[in-house]
Amino acid sequence: EVARVRAVAATGDGSDGAVRVLVVPAVASDRGRIRFEQLVPAQQTLERVTRRLDETRLVGTRVIVEPPVYRGVTVVARLRARPRVDPQRLQEDALAELYRYFHPTEGGQDGTGWPFGRPVHSGEVYAALQRLRGTELVEEVRVFGADPVTGERGKATDRLEVERDALVFSYEHQVLVEASV
To answer: Distance between CA 169 and CA 63 in Å, rounded?
Structure first.
């Protein structure tokens, strides 16, 4: 029920000697697509992790078990398909690749989950989409930060900063594929 765990020093007022344990639940996805609600671990899971850590922690160490912060990322891209490639199929493949690549437990370059705190660069989006079979050219890529709770999107950027202990999560990617002439 737990896919990833990260321990970090707690910061802020009254957190001296505290350790934050960030728990990412195991989630089933449909071609990389997950709902934000799936990324919140069950309360029972957090309680079990807390009990287990209480049994083994050093005396005087306070342990805070919680989910990480998630940073929504939306990619808006325009591709040109190679001749004789079905644009609809390429669009489906491109969306699946984006949802897989920016997945907190299955994404990233090695498929083990997007690294905590790693920024998103538009150049790597270009590379991921250009590698797709059937892509003639990636014409345009825009990357937006998105709030997965409110659905609000920020401004387009070439580098989306991600907080040190946060993970990215795919949110509403959009891909337009033009047929070659």
So the answer is: 26
Taking the alpha carbons of 6, 8, 12, 13 in that order, is the dihedral positive or negative? positive
- How many whole angstroms separate alpha carbon 170 and alpha carbon 100? 8
pTM: 0.88
Express each pLDDT in 57-95 by its tens digit: 877 788 889 999 899 999 999 999 999 999 999 999 999
Both tokens assigned to 167 = 């993970």
Give residue-wise pLDDT tens across range 22-66: 999 988 777 778 888 888 899 999 999 989 988 888 777 888 899
Copy the structure tokens of residue 67: 């989910």
Neighbouring residues of 57: CB distance < 8 A, sequence distance ≥ 6: 19, 63
Tokens of 107: 């994404």
Q: What are residue 180's DSSP bridge partners?
A: none
**How many residues in total does the chain contain?**
181
Is residue 1 within 8 A of residue 46, CB to CB? The reply is no
Structure tokens at 59: 């005396």
Backbone angles phi, psi at 125, to 5 degrees: -70, -45
Question: At 175, which amino acid appears?
Answer: V
